[in-house]
Design a protein that fits this description.
With about 400 residues, this protein is an alpha/beta fold. The protein is about 45% helix and about 10% strand.
Length: about 400
């Protein structure tokens, strides 16, 4: 029996999909047709064949993103397969256009094999100016991104990792200002060692956060554990300078920051053991690890992934501007410096208006995408990956 309710406004909004293709040129007569298509188009094809870089000017490829997923880690729904993932990928393409003016095409792949995904995307790459990987489960997502970045000379960006990390760092910068702390003086506890947890940890370390402890379902990652995957072993080597062991609750005692990117529930009494003026980013959606009202009893700043509470950590604050900036200078990659620049620009949009319920801009703030794009473009030029 179908679970779809065709009278439901949500289903009506998705009926027929959320995308269409529109021509930028009108075809009104034979002359228009002969220019847009044969025989005129042959001149453009011949020129590009002789000078491949001309494709950036005379096709849409250089400003087109492929939103690619295998449907294995969709929202909070998990492994639901490529067809069921397609509405999300369509939605992502809509957000690219709405917030960054960037065209995007959703592509769902009927394979979960790492080699097949890398090969398929590599073969499709000439049609696109950038690849946005989406909702691919860990740990495969790490290797897939690394391999595609090595194989392609266009930006490859796994948004579940880096988009989340950029927005988290921007919000953390402003939250730290409110509690009069420097990033290097913060002790951060991360709950979750999946895609978002790994990327958030890495960007915080690159930004200078002094002490990061990561916990998975079995407790704190430390070098004494013998059950760590390769990714978690690497995290253990880069984090936890104090050699802490035990549970997530043990790690939270006296911590200035909690970052939840894994789900689960943190008891009230554990939250109360954190340092005064604590910062709580409980990002599991739709049910945060710590309810905002509970967190607010002891924490100074609270953020979630939900739109019905202040300080929503939403990736749409990052990815449209990042690709826009990368495309503006025809960047060959998205570097760590570009990600850090994006986070700084996003934090600066808030500026002197920062307050407990406003450490990150609204997704509808029209200043966001241009500010991020400009910062990313500047960083691309500075790091030598810009081609314009």
């Amino acid at each position: 029996m179908s679970t779809a309710s065709h009278d439901d406004p949500i289903f009506r909004a998705h009926e027929g999909g959320k995308l269409e293709v529109r021509s930028t040129r009108e075809i009104r007569n034979r002359d228009d047709l002969s220019i847009a298509y044969t025989p005129g188009v042959a001149e453009v094809c011949t020129a590009i064949a002789a000078e491949p870089d001309l494709a950036a000017r005379y096709t849409w490829a250089s400003r087109l993103v492929a939103v690619v997923s295998d449907g294995t880690a969709v929202l909070g729904l998990g492994d639901i397969g490529p067809k069921a993932a397609l509405p999300v990928m369509e939605g992502k393409a809509v957000l690219f256009k709405q917030f960054g003016g960037v065209n995007a095409v959703p592509i769902v792949l009927d394979t979960t094999d790492e080699d097949e995904i890398v090969e398929t995307v590599t073969r499709l790459a000439p049609s696109f100016g950038g690849i946005n990987l989406e909702d691919i489960s860990a740990p495969r997502c790490f290797a897939i991104e690394d391999r595609l970045r090595a194989a392609l000379d266009i930006p490859v960006f796994h948004d579940d990792q880096h988009g989340t990390a950029i927005v988290v760092l921007a919000a953390l910068r402003n939250a730290a200002r409110l509690v009069d702390k420097k990033l290097e003086d913060l002790r951060v506890v991360v709950s979750g060692a999946g895609a978002a947890g790994v990327a958030c940890t890495k960007i915080m370390l690159e930004a200078g956060v002094g002490d990061v402890v990561v916990a998975d379902s079995r407790g704190v990652l430390h070098l004494g554990r013998t059950d760590l995957t390769e990714v978690k072993q690497c995290l253990a080597e880069q984090t936890n300078p104090g050699g802490r062991t035990g549970t997530l609750a043990d790690a939270l005692v006296g911590a200035e920051v909690f970052l939840g990117v894994s789900g689960g529930s943190i008891p009230d009494e554990v939250v109360a053991t954190m340092a005064p003026n604590a910062i709580v980013f409980a990002l599991a959606n739709p049910t945060p690890e710590i309810h905002p009202e509970v967190a607010a009893r002891t924490a100074r700043v609270v953020a979630t992934g939900r739109s019905d509470f202040p300080n929503q950590i939403n990736n749409v604050l990052a990815f449209p501007g990042i690709f826009r900036g990368a495309f503006d200078v025809r960047a060959s990659a998205i570097t760590e410096d570009m990600k850090l620049a994006a986070a700084d620009a996003l934090a600066e949009v808030v500026g002197e208006d920062v307050r407990e319920d406003y450490v990150i801009p609204s997704v509808f703030d029209e200043r966001v995408a241009p500010a991020v794009a400009e910062a990313v473009a500047d960083a691309a030029r500075a790091t030598g990956v810009a081609r314009d």
